[in-house]
Amino acid sequence: MDSIFKGRICEDIAAKFYIKNGYSVLKRNFRTREGEIDIILHKDDTIVFAEVKSIPSYWNPNDFSRKINQAKVFRIKKTASVYLASEVNDVYHFVRFDAVFVSKDKLTCIVGAF
User: Fold this and answer.
1) pLDDT given for residue 1 in this prediction
2) End-to-end CA gap in the chain
3) Chain centroid to CA 103: how far?
């Protein structure tokens, strides 16, 4: 299975997880010159930028720095600021960045990961 297809499957799983927990998806795969955000969601007065990663089932998702380094965090935050400046008409009081890790047998969502 190629990595793009695998990534899309993991993003679908993550989006379903958020929807099941009361979130609405605003956009998927938002791209700018600065970078990409996998899923942008909202619930109540919070907008969430979620980075989704596929991991092997034996890997500890709490050590997310192995998959999401500081350069990636910087690009995600810069891309989020572009989204907020250009695409958001509603007022959100809170902005959150989550890391979602999907393996064969489980999903781990680290709320407010960075």
Assistant:
1) 59
2) 30
3) 15
Give pTM, 2 decimals: 0.90
Residue type, 24: S
The CATH number assigned to the domain holding 35 equals 3.40.1350.10
Q: pLDDT means per 10 residues in the chain (114 residues)?
A: 75 97 97 95 96 86 78 96 85 91 90 93
Segments forming the whole domain that contains residue 62: 3-110
Q: In sequence order, which residues have a C-beta less than 8 Å from that of residue 52 and are 6 or more positions away?
A: 7, 10, 11, 14, 38, 39, 100, 101, 102
Number of domains composing the chain: 1
Contact 82/34 with Cβ under 8 angstroms? yes
